[in-house]
Amino acid sequence: MADYSLQKSKGYTIKGALNFVDYRFGKDGIEKLRDSLSDDLKKEISKGIIPSDWYPFKFQVEIYEKIDKVFGSGSFEFCKEIGKYTAEYEVSTIHKLFFKIGSPDTILKFGSLLWGRYYNKGKLEIISEEKYSATAYVKDWHPISRAFCIDLFGWMEKTLQMAGASSVYIKHSECLLDGFPHCKYEGFWKPKS
Predict the structure, then answer these.
(1) pLDDT score of 192
(2) Per-residue CA distances from 153 to 76, 110, 149, 159, 173 (Å)
(3) Whole-angstrom Cα Rg for the chain
(4) I need a surface site. Which of 32, 138, 140, 184 has the fewest CB within 10 A?
(5) Is residue 31 part of a domain?
(6) 129 inside domain
């Protein structure tokens, strides 16, 4: 397995997950989640997460896993909801203007560029050879846990929907955690009528 100790993610990722918990479960939910976290992550949260700062990627994964364990079933399916929520949250904050003028095709072209805004290593390659479909590869990046893969799945699905796609279907057909050299997502959709 690849070493992921040098992987970092921006505070946006942790902040978005905390906002999701606050939105869904309120302040009591935040406290319940905080009680389940490692001391290192609790310390960072108590100092205040700065969206533009870099944090160990393992913190992002930990918070996704703990949210799913505390509020979901422990199967990581709840992580898909986190991904959808953070996609919407980003549109209302960071990427507002872009989504006003974006279409699924534009979003796909821009999507690869977004990776470096959130992660210090790896890359997201998006290939769209046919209308209403695309394949995304996450390369040179260790997801650590399926929690991240499923969160990214939800983020992709909601992002396409917000860009005007309907009947979005995405499958995570290859995963580094299953021995593949990368994570692969295949997406299909229809235009909104």
Answers:
(1) 80
(2) 11, 17, 6, 10, 11
(3) 16
(4) 140
(5) yes
(6) yes
- pLDDT digits over 10-33, tens only? 999 999 999 999 999 999 999 999
Average pLDDT, the chain: 90
Q: Is residue 1 part of a domain?
A: no
* Domain coverage including residue 63: 8-78
What pLDDT score does 1 carry?
Answer: 45
From 25, 17, 107, select the one nearest 57 (Cα to Cα): 17
Is pTM beyond 0.85? Reply is yes
Q: Which DSSP helix (H) or strand (E) runs through 172?
A: strand 165-174
Domain CATH for 125: 3.90.1520.10
Helix (H) or strand (E) holding 184: strand 183-191
Under 8 Å between Cβ of 86 and 24 = no
Q: What are phi and psi of 103, to 5 degrees?
A: -125, 170
Task: Return the bridge partners of 169, or none.
Answer: 188
